[in-house]
Specification:
By secondary structure, this protein is of the alpha/beta class. It is 39% helix and 20% strand. The strands form three sheets. Strands 5-6-7-8-9-10-11-12 form an eight-stranded parallel barrel, surrounded by five helices. Strands 1-2 form a two-stranded antiparallel ribbon. Helix 2 crosses helix 3. InterPro entries: AKR, NAD(P)_OxRdtase_dom_sf, NADP_OxRdtase_dom.
Length: 384
């Protein structure tokens, strides 16, 4: 088990971070790659996110369940749970969901019960359920926060949530601090193992940490096209030990051979953008540089993928996992409709060399600066 870069040795360094009330020690990491250090496959695939005494071991590639919320095709419950079991059996046992992702939490509850009944204890020990709470920005009382968390606990059929990732729509309303303090109390009472964030920007993450709220991670959009997290967020994360969990890393499937050498300006000539995620990330492509420039990126990634005998998506995920402060990356699972177990497992054995990384950095930098176009992490959800 390692932190930051599972395939290399890591030297932990301690820095002093001053908060409003006291000075505390936090952990950062210095990346080292000594030739004599060889990680096992288990070390390459797992990571620990932590803050103080709070910690959670999870798989570095996370099964994203946004696709259960509708728009990707009809999900059969029993078939979906069967697929979740196959992922867990393959070692891909970390699942990400949310209270607003349709039946995602309910599916997890059925799944975890089948694991308890049908699998040995060592499989159950590796299963992780990361969920999100996405409330309207109303008054965050203790009873309101607790009642919502209890709903997720009941749906997922767990006494303690492995991770609760909190989202907030309106920064002008400082109620997010009240909510996070109540979530911290619920953590201390054993109802949540780790408290985390989703789609918070760097400024608000700093404020949250200054208020001594022990978040372990922030889930943000991050891909070769969207490198915003590396401009401000990653530096704060490295200073404080908070990790990044990324989504949109394969851009809903746009970063794949399926879209290589295609021209979407010709009606019906290429693959259709027939899912909410494809439509969402096509808008990101347009903001970054357009389809023609995206084709240049795919050609570079395809050359690297062929060199290593893997897929474009595998290269895209590994490049982001290699970025500073990134603990894990999300790949959406269309349960019962498609599977990518082989591609995901190849991420853990892939080693991108300096030539690969330089090529990707060069073509990525040709696009527009999305920090200027969109703003910091999560700002796309808060623009008028």
């Amino acid at each position: 088990m390692t932190e930051i870069l599972p395939y290399s040795c890591n030297k932990l360094v301690f820095a002093s971070v001053r908060t409003k009330t006291r000075t505390r020690n936090v952990i950062g990491a210095v990346k080292l790659r000594p030739i004599s250090c060889v990680a096992t496959e288990a070390e390459k695939s797992s990571v620990v996110v932590k803050n103080g005494k709070d910690s959670l071991e999870m798989c570095r590639v996370v099964n994203g369940m946004w696709q259960t919320s509708g728009g990707w095709g009809k999900i059969d419950r029993d078939n979906a749970v069967d697929v979740m079991l196959r992922y867990a059996d393959a070692g891909l046992a970390t699942f990400d969901m949310a209270d607003i992702y349709g039946p995602a939490e309910d599916l997890y509850g059925i799944f975890i019960n089948r694991v308890r009944r049908e699998r040995p204890p060592d499989v159950l020990e590796k299963v992780r359920g990361l969920t999100k709470w996405v409330p309207s920005p109303v008054k965050m009382t203790r009873s309101f926060v607790e009642s919502n968390i209890n709903v997720s606990r009941k749906r997922m059929d767990v006494a303690c949530l492995d991770m609760l990732q909190f989202h907030w729509w309106d920064y002008a309303n400082s109620g997010y601090l009240d909510a996070l303090k109540h979530l911290t109390d619920l953590k201390d009472e054993g109802k949540i193992k780790t408290v985390a964030l989703t789609n918070f920007d760097t400024e608000r993450l700093r404020i949250i940490l200054e208020n001594e709220i022990p978040v372990v991670s922030n889930q943000v959009q991050h891909s070769i096209v969207d490198m915003r997290p590396q401009q401000k967020m990653a530096e704060l994360c490295q200073q404080t030990g908070v990790k990044l969990i990324t989504y949109g890393t394969v851009m809903g499937g746009l970063l794949s051979e399926k879209f290589l050498d295609t021209n979407l300006s010709i009606p019906f000539a290429g693959p259709s953008l027939n899912t909410p995620s494809l439509q969402k990330y096509k808008r990101m492509v347009d903001a970054w540089g357009g389809w023609s420039q995206f084709q240049v990126l795919l050609q570079v990634l395809n050359k690297i993928a062929r060199k290593h005998g893997v897929s474009i998506s595998t290269v895209a995920v590994k490049y982001i996992l290699d970025q500073p402060a990134v603990a894990g990356s999300m790949i959406g699972v269309r349960l019962g409709l498609s599977e990518h177990i082989k591609d995901v497992n190849s991420v853990f054995s892939l080693e991108l060399d300096e030539e690969d990384a330089d090529s990707i950095r060069e073509v990525s930098s040709r696009g527009r600066d999305l920090m200027t176009v969109i703003g910091d992490c999560g700002d796309e959800y808060r623009r008028a």
